Amino acid sequence: MDYSKPFCLDMSLFYLAVFFITLSFSQPQKEIDSLILLLENNTQRDSVRVRLLLTTSFKLRHKDLNEARSLVDEALDISSELKWIKGKALSLRQSGMIYYREGNSLKAVEVWYDALKKSSAIKEAKDFELTIYGNLANVYADSGEFEQALDNYNKFLELAKKLNNRKYQIQALTNIGTLLTEKETRIKEGIQTLEKALAMAKKENIQQYVVSILLNIGLSHKRNEDYSKALTYYQQANKLSRKTGDKYVELLTLNNLCNVNISLSNYHEAEIYAKNTLNMSKEMGSIEWQSSAWESLSHIYETKNNSEKALNAYKKHIKLNDSFASLQNKEKIAKLEAEYQYNQEKNRLKAEADKKQLLAQEEINRQKLMTNTSIYAGSGIVLASIIGFILYRRKQDAVVKSKEAEFKTKVANTELKVLRAQMNPHFIFNSLNSIGSYILNNDTDAANNYLTKFSKLMRHTLENSEREEISLEKDIELLKTYLDIEKKRFSQGFNYDIKIDDALDTKNTLIPPMILQPFVENSIWHGISKLEGNGTISIEVKKNKNVIIYSVDDNGIGRKKSRKSNPSKKESLGIKITKNRIDIINKRKNVNANLKIIDKENGTRVEVTLPLELEFTND
């Protein structure tokens, strides 16, 4: 590991949001309860209810996104019924904020541009446009679109100057300066802009802005490897955060003070800040900060030649970092799925618009034909019929091609998701850690055995990703390898058995590769991992006339208890992917393959019914 550069988590860089400020993460429950009571007492669908719905939605944005979405959708419906353009514009702005928090940035941008079109109906149009430009800039900055972000921040700044709003000017200058420091060639310009924002924030006595700007200037100097200046600004930010009582910002400053002291080789001070970061992050329940603190302590102990403490600290860092990485991967997958669904909906709407335009053009042509003289009426009708027939055929061909393209896209996306699910980053990361642990403990035989199984699984997974079907024998072998690997890294251990119907020729029977793997993974980590003792997984392959019933059965805690322990848990990605794979099989082969998930008193049983496919027949 290269410790010549700072390595603690750099979380100090953030943008001062306009419509959704993220420095405070909670709203008083009493205020929310009062708003909900007002909504219950004001049931009339008028502008008063619209404003109440939007205010309540805004207050709930950090607590319950689903409820916030429900409220803003109702506000948009009422505004449409009333034909109240201002209400629609305000609702669209709030809707965009919720899309952004859900991770659907593309939809947020689309909705905000729609809101801008309606801004002329608002008396305070400049204020409204200002918030939209600020939000658009934040989204573009998050996605790394530098020029578009900078353009929108400058529009935001110009409107703030016209309104003579000092608070918004500070926000604009802070965001512009922060964005500029992300470009290596413009760091100096960015720091100058941030210093200007800092002077204004101090003059206006807005302490919340002062501390955030101090953090961003500190980070900018650290990027420029001027660690002494960075330390000065971080110390000022830490002192101010303790004064204002903002625990989140105080934790942020402690982590960065640890970071920059390590860069300056001030290991004694760095250890104090790392321990303070660790204690406070435990109180706040922050996994990523705890992980960062342990990583820092590992390096500090290493410089003191305390190998045992260094190793223990690093193990704790790896364990926490793995949990945090898993959460980030799930969020990323959810975001990618949201973007895919948005693009699908966009294409569907475009196709409908094209169809309406085509029908409108046909109507215009028909009206023109009716105005022709009776002499050309007969020939006109014949000509119209021919044109209509051609258009109809073209339309039918287009529909067929569209469905084929849609199906091919679904196949391609499903195949990619299957490979991603089997090449699970969480599984790969933990496996490599296990191999590393064996090596550290000088258990070379175990490390070699584990590495052999792991490389075999990866090689076959990549090879089979290009095949629609493999032999049952190879699939069972691959599944055994996967189970052996999971069994080795599963702390409390588990048992498994595989039974194959004697009526099946495993070398000649073909099935989709690793179709049971997601369910085996669920059985291990969501079923039997919650048991106090050892769990058991039973895998069975049976022939029933012209179908194969492929099943996995566990004695874990079952789905009901799993949902109780995690009520917000959604259907797993593996189940969605398998459903898509089965749907593709049914469409390609005109069969009736299906998936059943059976909840037992103790555990879960999954059955996948597939058509019996043979590589060679006796005919």
From TrEMBL:
Does the entry feature the keyword ATP-binding, yes or no?
no
Which UniProt keywords are given for this protein, alphabetically ordered? Membrane, TPR repeat, Transmembrane, Transmembrane helix
TM ranges are 374-392
Stretches assigned to the Signal transduction histidine kinase internal region domain: 414-492
Spans of TPR repeats, please give.
130-163, 211-244, 291-324
Q: Does the keyword Transmembrane apply?
A: yes
Q: Spell out the Pfam families in the cross-references.
A: His_kinase, TPR_12, TPR_8
What is the protein name given in its UniProt record?
Signal transduction histidine kinase internal region domain-containing protein
